[in-house]
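Students often ask why we bother encoding 3D structure as a string. The short answer is that it lets us treat folding as translation between two languages. Here is a chain of 198 residues written in the first language.
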Amino acid sequence: MPTTASTSHSFATFLTLATALFVSTLALHPRTLNAADKSHAHGTDSMPNAATPCGTVTGHEPLSSKVFPCTKRRCSLHVPAQSHSKNQATLIVFQDGHTFINQLGDFRVPVVFDNLITKAAMPVTIAVMIDPSHKGELPDKRGWKPTPANRSVEYDTVSSDCADFLLTDVFEQSTLTNRLWPIDTWSKYCHIKMTATN
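And here it is in the second language, the structure alphabet:
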């Protein structure tokens, strides 16, 4: 009879080999987990509806940064038609903003939000859609070509930089080269207090 220790060791070895085999199999068949292979049909909430009040979408560029110096990015703001200063609104921020703003794309945030808010299926929500940044001048169009040079630094670095960027460069008017809203307007519409760490 093998001992408990040897049995545990054998199981651990088996598990390690099985995991390695699984990972190598994925490497040999990269299409296995490719979501693009499956078609996705958009539902009615992703389609424009003439009976739905449309929110306002505005674009802002170039949005520079003190947290990420020498970078520029584009940003869009969607404010639903039901948003009023006397009513509380929810705030949501989308990174890779250009993938969400396209009203004929995969996500169609302005269309979906307008439809769901009108049906009271979600709260009144203001959406900020921010692109990852480029170093130097911005390309002519939003998107992945060329690849945003500073994306991995902004999104993958384990620090408070990304949160500080949102607080100090996006929501505080003092550091915006092209202001979305003054800080008192954010507070008025979203009923939130903006603070940033030093």
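Translate back mentally: The helical segments are 4-28, 98-101, 109-118, 151-156, 161-170, 183-190. Keep this in mind for the problem set.
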